[in-house]
Design a protein that fits this description.
It contains 1 helix and 16 strands. By secondary structure, it is an all-beta fold. Strands 7-6-10-15-12-13 form a 6-stranded mixed β-sheet, with no helix packed on it. Strands 2-4-5 form a 3-stranded antiparallel β-sheet, with no helix packed on it. Strands 14-11-16 form a 3-stranded antiparallel β-sheet, with no helix packed on it.
């Protein structure tokens, strides 16, 4: 059984292959929790579940949502390719609040590994806003065309930049300028004065883009030990000279991410659990939402501390992790 609160990365299942997985989920969400669905459900991201579609966790397709105060037991045969997967809520955007975690399928004990890694670690990536996922869903599920909006629905409304990018649930809190509130001839945090190209529609909920040469949003990261925030950072310890398999999971809601390993090349060996021909990259790899990338990192530099950093693609001014 598993009880998941507003926390990320706290249910890393490690089923074998083949074997039977059994997980009991109880919905203890509090009264008044904002939701666009009457309950929750858990989806096993990347699992085909052939012959067992009723365990897929898609609300109103493979099951009814798990109502508040009730429970449901998922039981299924694990016949998936060994590799990196993850699980998440599939009823609303509760996954944006942390109802998710890594899911690693291990090979049978008598099957030799495909690589020579000495150890492995999970890097579970997440974009983080300072309001609930269901509040985001209320805005994003409205009609995209403002002319089709009604008095009951309102129009589609963008949710802005995330406040943080997290690695295994840890990260900094950034105060980011809201580009949707810019006005012409106003001084930006950089000291520059806004021109028309720097301004979006005056209606924050109408889709729009900054001009190609517009000044991006700026973010100020709270200093460690400040009264408002004490940043936490994930630490991955690797033995000098060893090779570690890093299982990178982009469990983000909206952000396409780039992960970089300071002064270390990484070799991609699997994509979405499937082994691929190894390809080495200089420090960085891109990981889109829902995607999993396994890389090998050899600790071949001088003993010391090196940054693992996460940045966003195509989001001007979004914070880094």
């Amino acid at each position: 059984a598993a009880v998941v609160t507003r926390t990320i990365h706290n249910l890393g299942l490690l089923p074998c292959n083949p074997c039977t997985a059994q997980v009991t989920v109880k919905n203890n969400l509090p009264d008044g929790w904002p939701s666009t669905a009457k309950g929750i459900s858990i989806h096993w991201h990347g699992f085909s579940l052939k012959g067992q579609p009723w365990m897929d966790g898609t609300k109103f397709v493979s099951q009814c949502p798990i109502a508040k105060g009730s429970s449901f037991t998922y039981k299924f045969q694990v016949n998936e390719m060994p590799g990196t997967y993850f699980w998440h809520d599939h009823s609303t955007l509760n996954r944006a609040d942390g109802l998710m975690g890594p899911l690693i399928v291990q090979p049978p004990a008598d099957v030799p590994p495909l690589d020579t890694a000495d150890a492995s670690a999970v890097l579970f990536l997440k974009d983080w806003w300072h309001f609930t996922g269901n509040a985001m869903a209320f805005r994003l599920n409205r009609p995209f065309d403002p002319t089709k909006a009604t008095g009951d629905t309102g129009a589609w409304c963008w949710v802005g930049l995330p406040k943080s990018l997290l690695i295994n649930g840890k990260g900094n809190y950034a105060d980011c300028e809201d580009v949707y509130k810019r006005e012409v001839n106003k001084t930006l945090p950089s000291g520059n004065v806004t021109a028309a190209k720097d301004v979006l529609s005056p209606n924050a909920c109408v889709a729009g883009q900054l001009g190609p040469t517009a000044e991006p949003s700026t973010c100020s990261v709270k200093a460690a030990g400040s009264s408002s925030c004490n940043p936490q950072r994930e630490v991955v310890t690797i033995k000098p000279g060893s090779t570690t398999r890093l299982r990178i999971i982009n469990a983000g809601t909206l952000v396409y991410m780039t992960v970089c390993f300071e002064k270390h090349n990484v070799t991609v060996v699997a994509l979405d659990a499937a082994p691929v021909e190894p390809k080495t990259f200089n420090e960085c790899v891109d990981v889109n939402t829902g995607q999993r990338v396994d890389v090998l990192l050899k600790a071949d530099q001088a003993v010391g501390s090196y940054w693992i950093s996460v940045g966003s693609q195509y989001r001007k001014g979004a914070p880094a992790g």
